[in-house]
């Protein structure tokens, strides 16, 4: 097959896959996890059920793929922030605030069955490890510059930051999220 044909087929498959993921997420948000069927997803996406089953084995598989895409997008965004210009402390603060806001925005996902399904996948553990490594590297750089405490290992501080800021998912306002970030950052400064 010509290369252009292969690229066109792959682009089409990505478009269909993305449409399935988006349609499924919208249907689940509207109707709930247990109310969505493969037939509804196929109809909403505009493809046949047989085609849908070529892509995914069931609704749960679609939702896990959707969540993997979401988590990957969040990590990519955080990585871009970490790589921006500025000193390590400024970049760390920006990453922590962005992460807290991501956690805060996820607060609408209160369906415990859905949360349990989406967070049991290996992709969540891998993403958390990547996030902790990203924060650890920024902490190490800021500590070496003398901007942050050096009496606690960067790995430990990174884990502290991630777990502390996960609480943003239960906060009611962006102002509360910013206060949480400020408190978390205060714990990173050298003891006086």
Describe the structure.
With 192 residues, this protein is mostly helical. It has two domains: 56 residues, Orthogonal Bundle (Arc Repressor Mutant, subunit A); 128 residues, Tetracycline Repressor, domain 2, CATH 1.10.357.10. Helix content is 74%, strand content 0%. The chain contains nine helices and no strands. α2 crosses α3 and α5 packs across α9. The radius of gyration is 20 Å and the shape is elongated. The termini are far apart. The model has no long low-confidence stretch (mean pLDDT 89).
Q: What is the C-alpha radius of gyration, as a whole number of Å?
A: 20 Å
Morphology: elongated
Would you identify the CATH H-level superfamily of the largest domain?
A: Tetracycline Repressor, domain 2
Which CATH first-tier class of the largest domain would you pick? Mainly Alpha
Largest sheet: none
Number of domains: 2
Helical fraction equals over 70%
């Amino acid at each position: 097959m010509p290369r252009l044909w292969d690229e066109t087929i792959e682009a089409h498959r990505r478009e269909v896959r993305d449409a399935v993921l988006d349609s499924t997420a919208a249907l689940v948000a509207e109707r709930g996890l247990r109310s969505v069927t493969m037939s509804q997803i196929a109809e909403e996406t505009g493809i046949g059920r047989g085609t849908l089953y070529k892509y995914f084995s069931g609704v749960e598989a679609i939702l896990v793929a959707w969540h993997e895409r979401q988590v990957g997008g969040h990590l990519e965004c955080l990585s871009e922030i970490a790589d921006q210009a500025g000193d390590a402390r400024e970049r760390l603060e920006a990453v922590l605030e962005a992460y807290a806001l991501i956690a805060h925005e996820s607060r609408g996902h209160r369906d415990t069955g859905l949360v349990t399904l989406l967070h049991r996948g290996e992709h969540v553990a891998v993403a958390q490890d990547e996030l902790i490594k990203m924060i650890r590297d920024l902490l190490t750089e800021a500590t070496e510059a003398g901007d942050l405490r050096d009496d606690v290992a960067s790995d430990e501080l990174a884990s502290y930051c991630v777990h502390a800021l996960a609480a943003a998912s239960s906060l009611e306002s962006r102002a509360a999220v910013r206060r949480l970030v400020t408190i978390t950052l205060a714990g990173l400064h050298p003891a006086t």
